[in-house]
Write a structure and sequence with these properties.
The structure is a single chain. This protein is an alpha/beta fold. It has one domain: L-arginine/glycine Amidinotransferase, Chain A (5-stranded Propeller), CATH 3.75.10.10. It has 9 helices and 16 strands. The strands form 5 sheets. Strands 3-2-1-16 form a 4-stranded mixed sheet. A 3-stranded mixed sheet has the order 4-5-6, covered by helices on one side. A 3-stranded mixed sheet has the order 7-8-9. The longest helix is centred in the N-terminal third of the chain and has 13 residues. The chain is globular.
């Protein structure tokens, strides 16, 4: 049974940082319309399953069978993978999936509304089934689910340091929830996540259908350090300044920081070129003690996202 929980936890509320221990990572297998990403998905699954359990949601039983055949063909072991058959509309579970909050004793899922990225990838993009995934995961895990469907929010636009600071892009939130003031957004976000400080990024590339998701621009690598994508003349210098004013160290990264940090590993964005070696060396300094795997994720980036966008980490509590 799913419980829709509205009471405030007795302790301090927070969203765990991604580098904290995971229980598992969840993914939605790309169906026929996103089949170009299947090889990259197989490469991601091969890495993640070696370090932590992977849950894969397939849209139908035939899609599950196809996915298993594909992974076997790519010589990806099927051990440490749990399969779920549940209708879905897309493969971007970061955005339609759950957000986990905890007070240190109890953990629950926040179920925000997903609207297919505001229709920015086309008005015919379906998302009804995607909206049902967080309650499904909550039911599977026996976890309380809080209905937050009065607010549209994609997890790809949330970057937490686990200790009260949130990075988020204004353009995206303003696009999804038009008419709200910044104060209104901040009151809702602080109450939902227990954060005390919000740093806003402004602006986005006109071709970015996510309207500027923060996970393609800025990522925490520890509580006090932010990595920001070095985009040359388009580097977000205002965000750099705001982060420094907040007392955070800022490091520029000459690549796409849309990586997944997990139990002993990092799955990072690569393109199969020699530049991957440079990026790998940098990421290894960001996350010492973790194995860094550069994955050729061009098919995912060409579809509008990255490795972080197609994974959804479940914190271990």
């Amino acid at each position: 049974m799913i419980l829709f929980y509205s009471a405030v936890f007795a302790g301090g509320l927070r969203v765990p940082a991604e580098w904290e221990p995971h229980e598992a990572t969840w993914m939605q297998w790309p169906g026929i319309y996103e089949a170009d990403m299947q090889q990259a998905f197989a490469d991601i699954v091969e890495v993640v399953r070696a370090y932590e359990p992977v849950h894969i949601i397939a849209g139908s039983r035939p899609e599950k069978d196809q996915a298993q055949r594909f992974l076997k063909k790519q010589q990806v072991p099927l051990s440490n993978i749990t399969w779920h058959v549940r209708p879905t509309n897309n493969a971007w579970l970061r955005d339609n999936g759950p957000v986990y909050v905890t007070d240190g004793r109890d953990t629950r899922i926040l179920n925000f509304r997903f609207d297919g990225w505001g229709g920015n990838f086309g008005a015919d993009v379906e998302y009804k089934e995607d909206n049902l995934i967080p309650p499904y995961i909550g039911q599977y895990l026996g976890m309380e689910v809080e209905d937050r469907s009065n607010y549209i929010l994609e997890k790809g636009n949330l970057e937490f340091n686990g200790r009260g600071t949130l990075l988020i892009n204004w353009d995206c939130q303003d696009d999804r929830n038009p008419g709200m003031t910044r104060a209104g957004h901040e009151a809702l976000l602080k109450e939902a996540f227990g954060v005390t400080r919000i740093i806003w990024a402004y602006g986005h590339h006109p071709d970015d259908g996510t309207t500027g998701h923060i996970d393609g621009t800025a990522r925490f690598i520890d509580e006090d350090t932010v990595v920001i994508a070095d985009a040359g003349d388009e580097t977000d210098t205002d965000l750099m300044a705001d982060c420094k004013d907040a007392g955070l160290e800022v490091i520029l990264y000459p690549g796409d920081p849309n990586w997944l940090v997990g139990n002993g590993f990092v799955a990072a964005m690569g393109d199969g070129s020699a530049h991957d070696k440079i990026l790998k060396s940098m990421v290894e300094t960001f996350f010492p003690g973790r194995d860094v795997h550069m994955i050729d994720a061009r098919s995912i980036s060409e579809s509008g996202g990255g490795i972080h966008c197609v994974t959804n980490d479940q914190p271990k509590m």
